[in-house]
Structure formats: C-alpha cells, structure tokens
Write the structure tokens for this entry.
Amino acid sequence: MAHDEPQRAARSDAQRNLERVLRAAHELFAERGADVTMEEVARHAGVGVGTIYRRFNSKEELLAAVAHAACASTCDSLRAASHATNPIARLKALALVQFHHSAHAPLTHALPPIDAAEPEEVARLLHELLADAIADGQRQHLIRDGDPRLLAAFCLELLSLRTCRRLGNACQADAETLAEEAVRFVLHGLSRVTA
Amino acid sequence: MAHDEPQRAARSDAQRNLERVLRAAHELFAERGADVTMEEVARHAGVGVGTIYRRFNSKEELLAAVAHAACASTCDSLRAASHATNPIARLKALALVQFHHSAHAPLTHALPPIDAAEPEEVARLLHELLADAIADGQRQHLIRDGDPRLLAAFCLELLSLRTCRRLGNACQADAETLAEEAVRFVLHGLSRVTA
Amino acid sequence: MAHDEPQRAARSDAQRNLERVLRAAHELFAERGADVTMEEVARHAGVGVGTIYRRFNSKEELLAAVAHAACASTCDSLRAASHATNPIARLKALALVQFHHSAHAPLTHALPPIDAAEPEEVARLLHELLADAIADGQRQHLIRDGDPRLLAAFCLELLSLRTCRRLGNACQADAETLAEEAVRFVLHGLSRVTA
Amino acid sequence: MAHDEPQRAARSDAQRNLERVLRAAHELFAERGADVTMEEVARHAGVGVGTIYRRFNSKEELLAAVAHAACASTCDSLRAASHATNPIARLKALALVQFHHSAHAPLTHALPPIDAAEPEEVARLLHELLADAIADGQRQHLIRDGDPRLLAAFCLELLSLRTCRRLGNACQADAETLAEEAVRFVLHGLSRVTA
DNA sequence: CATGAATGAGCCTTCATTCAT
DNA sequence: TATGAATGAAGGCTCATTCAT
C-alpha cells in the first residue's frame, strides 16, 4: 500500500495532464479549427508534445477525442431536455442545446469524414428529437403542418452560435439576446396561422 | 490586321488558361476552402503551377481573385433581384440570390481579413436589401412586426446551400426542393399571424 | 541536482548541434556566399533542415548569426591588436586581423542591407584603428605623409585572404607567406622615402 | 538582289538585337552578378527571352559571352598600353587598364570555373605585362628589388574599381581621384628607398 | 525569327511525428 | 513517464528553359 502512493500520485498527475490536454485542445480547435499546431496545443496545456502523443496516436485522434467529449456532453443535455412533456417547452429546450453545441462548429467541421460519425450521430439525434417535438406539437395543433423532419432541420440551422456571431456584426445585440430572438422567430415560423 | 492574328491567338490561349485556372480554383476552394494545394489547382486546370503564378503573385491573390469574381456575379444577381416592386416577390428573389451565393461559403471563409472586405460588403448589401424588402412588407402589412434587420439576418442564415446540404443528409430531397421549402418556411415565419 | 542531468544532457546535445550548424554554415557561406542550400548546410552539419529552423527563423537569420559570430571574433582580435604602442607593430597586428577577417568576405557580402550594419561597423572600426596607427606613425616620422584614412584603406584592401588566394594562382607561395609579403609591401609603401 | 533587301534588313535587325542583349546583359551582370533573371535581361534589352535563347543555349553561355567581350576589350587596351617604353609610364598605363577592367568584377566572379578560363587568362596576361614592366624598372634601378610577379600582383589588387567604391564609403573622394591616389601609392610602394 | 506563356525542378519553410534523454 | 529536440515529407514560390503561336 505504501509503495502505491507514488504510483497513484503519478497516475493522478497523468490524469490531470490528460484533462489539461483535452481542455486546451478543445478551446483551440473549437475556436480556430484544425489549423492549430500540436506544439501550440501542448504549450496551451503546459506540457510537451510528447505527452500528447503518449495518449493520442495522431492529431486526428486528438481531434476525434475532443469531438467525442463534446458530443457526449451534448448527449447528456439532450437526454435532460427531452424529458419535458409540453412540445413547445421541449422544442425550446432542445433548441438551446443546439445553440450551445454549435459553439464547437470549427471543431466538428475539422474532422475528417472517417471520424465524423459521432458528431453526425449527435446531429441526427438532435434532429430526431426536435422532429418528434414538432410532430407532437402538430398532433396537439400547436404547430403548423409540414414535414416535421424538414421543419426541425430549419430550426437547427437557425440556432447556431456561429449564426449569432454574424448577426452580432449586422445588428446591435449580444449573443444571448439574439438566441432568444432566434427561438422566437423559429416558434413563430412553426406557429399555426389561424385563418 | 493579319499580323495581329498570332498575337491574338496566343492571347486567347492564355485567356483560356486563365479562365480554366479561375474555374478550377473556384471549384476547389468553394468546395474545400483554402487547404487545397496550388499543385492541385494547377492539375485540376490542366496547367503547371508556374502558369498560375504568372497571373497571381500568391495563393492569397488567387483566392482573392476567385472571391472577387464570385462577389461580382452575386452583385449582378442582386441588381436584377432588387427591381421587383412587390416586397414578397423581392424577398423571394433576394433569398434565391443568397441561396446561390452561399455555395461559395468555404471560399469566402478562407480569405484573410485583409481581402475579406468585398465579400463582407456583398453580405452587407444583401442584408440591407433584404431588410428593405421586409420593411416595405411591414409597411404594407404583409409581414409581421419586428426589427427588419434582425429578421433579414435570420432569413439569410436559413438560405444557404450549406444548410441545404445538411438537410439533404437528414431528409430525402434535393437541394432545389429544399431551397424552395426554406423560402416557404421563411415567408411563413415572416407572415402576419392574423389573429 | 541529480535530476538536472537528463535536461542538461539534452541541452548539451542541442548545444553541440547548434555549434555544428553554425560551423557548417560558416564554412559554406564564407566559401560560396548566400547561394548555398539550407539542405546543404544541414547535410554538412549532419542534421535535418528542421533542426536549423528550430534555432533560426530563416536563412537570413542564420546568415546574420554567422556574420555576427565572425564579427565578434574579429572584435576580440582588434582589442588585442590595438594595445601595441609602437605604431608599426600596431599596424602589423591590425593588418593581420584584417587578413583573417577577410576570410569571410563572401559571407558578409551575402548579407541583406538590413543585417549588414555589424560587419560594416567592424570594417569601420578596423579602418579607424589602422588610420590612427598610421597617423601616430606619421607624427613620429616613421610613415610618409598623406591622408591617413586613405592610406589605411589601401592597406586594408591589400590584406585580404581573397587577394592572397589570387596571388597563390599567379605565384608560387602559400597564403601565410603572401600575407607577410603583403605587410612588407604595405610598410614599404608607407615608409618615408629618405631622400 | 531585290529580294535580298528584307533578308538583309532582318539580319541587321537580328544583329541589333544581339548587341542590345549583350549590352543589357553586360550592364546587369557587371552590376549585380549572376543573380539577375533572364527575364530581366530580356526586358532591359527590349526583347523577349526567346530571342536570347536563340543565340545562347543557356544563361551560362550568355554569361560567358559577355565575359568574353569584356576580356577582348581589355586585351585591346592591354596591347595599346604595353607599347610604352618607359617602364613607369607602362606601369601606369597597365594599372589604368586593370582599374577599368575591374569594373566587371561581379560578372567574372559569377562565371562557373569551366568558363573562367578566359578572364583568368586576361588576368594572367595583365599580371605578366605588369611584372615585365616592373622587372624592366628594376633593371633600370627605377623600382625597388623584390619578386616582380609578387609586386605586380599587389599592384593589381590595389587597382580595382571595387576597391575604389569601398574607399568612397570611407573617405570623401570620387573614383577617379582615388584611382590616381592608388597609382601613386603603388608607385611609392615600388619606388627605391634611397638610403 | 521573335514573342512571352507554360513548364517543372528545386529552394525555403512549416509542422506532424519520432525518439534520445 | 515527460520533455522537447530532431526529422523529413510536403507546400508555397521562383526562375531557367522550352515551345506554340
């Protein structure tokens, strides 16, 4: 037991390094996409490049791992958001998840097709849950008619941080305000036009 | 005049090469952004790298030229689209321009800030014209209330080829159909909800 | 302290590589000027090109560094040579410094104007010290009359390794012998012609 | 005969082009050495690159031709200068030839060893004639003792335009004045020290 | 013959990856 | 196990040379 201490310490050190690497990689890749140097990631994480290559066999693997973590986090949020029973509330909650997930756009965009399965799966799931909510809303006559999958897709598109950034350039509002406006616009777009 | 022939012949050949280079560069940059090799562009155009460098001093200049051409084309379309007097028709026409202009997204995204002025100017103009159309529509009670600039921004975002490509993955329709659906969604979102 | 060893070992290895690079670069640049390939320098130093670029941001910087080292070495020699009190002895010593410094002629010639400040400063200093020695000699009636700056310039010109190499082609003597002959010629040229 | 006219005109045109190319190449190479672009030479000569390649199979050949012309000119001057009977006058005349020949230094410096035979032959001849003059002067007790070949070599070195340019930086005199000073210095260096 | 557009080998430089310490 | 120096393949760019007009 006594001689376990240093090992455990070493292990926790390694664990901490792994986390630092992932955090650093996430920040940089999410901000600037794939054209960030491994050296830069290492520096940002406060380790040497070798330390990264001990855990990840290539830059691609690191990208995939970071994307995986982001997707896992989004999935947690999705599970929580899909519990609401009211279709409109569910729709709002899911939209908010999409809004935050889109913050990693440059990251998922940078993935090579072979590694893009998971982010696409997340997008697929998000889209499915959104379509379900819309279909429910249609059944309850809260939302206008139309292919739910298509309507859901439009909603997703409208609710990305990237979008909000561009709006910030054209208009005069902060991201959060714009997000709310976007949800409102979407809901209006989905609302029934009564007569 | 007769002795002009060879010169003009040489020039027309060069002209054709220039066009091939621009076309090749446009296709590749618009598809995959800036991380396309000059060698690749040259191969795609059926010329050597030197031929490209005879016309463009750097990859950056080539990118800028291609972006310029795309912007000029979009401007032509904008002029044509902004003639419609009916606000809704104008809105549809402008939306279609945006739809096609967005096909170059990775290209304009790849431009260094210094060269991004023109694409941003086009985006600004597109946005302004759309906002004008929306404001007109509001005055004629054809479009619901709300900041025209904000509403216009949402419309733009929704009408990109990129968006349509993603929708193509999730749904079962070709790009043109999706574009029409998107316009319809947007118009519904802008329509007055008559109690 | 014990755990400093590996770091210091790594550092000393790197240090040795740096020295090898500088030595290789010096030899090649001094011999053939700037049109030596970085690959060639690397091969000559027994390293990869990347190793050079780790220390020097560009070929120009490498050139500048090599030139700086050569100038520093010359400055040391100058300090030592300028201590002699006898003007003739001082003149001889300085002439020898010039003789050795001129071995790097193609190197300093290859520097871009922006980096040429230091070599020019060395040349200026050498010239100034030589002119001082000549002026002293004139005051003591050991050297014939004439503008000391001009006479000094002639001396410098006559005392270059490059010159000696050419003499070696035309005559039948080694460089050192020729250097001595050159000093003798110079001194004779500077000597007072006593009617 | 009538139909000879255009041919002769064409031929004289070609002749004129050849001269222009040689003159342009001479000016540029003599000023900046071998790192002048063929395109630059062509532009300077007012022709296309193809016209140069019609006469010279390579840049190297052009360099050699330009060097040949310069050497031939120098040889003419040498022949004229070597007629003087007075050794001192002959020495001065030859020194002046060297002074002007050295104006092409960067050009001859740029020649690859294989083509350097002729310039070296000129240098050899110049050196030989100078040594002869010195030997004559020694026989007539006008010049101090010493190996004539060695003394001649020193004279040559001292009398280059390149030298004069550098002196111009350090002192305050134009090239011609400096040349005269150099000759004076050389003659003083060669003069007999009586007693 | 003249032209100058096209070619492509080769140079400088970057960066993912490896490996000695 | 962590470090960061070393490696070298690959990309941007230049320029001697060729060739269609």
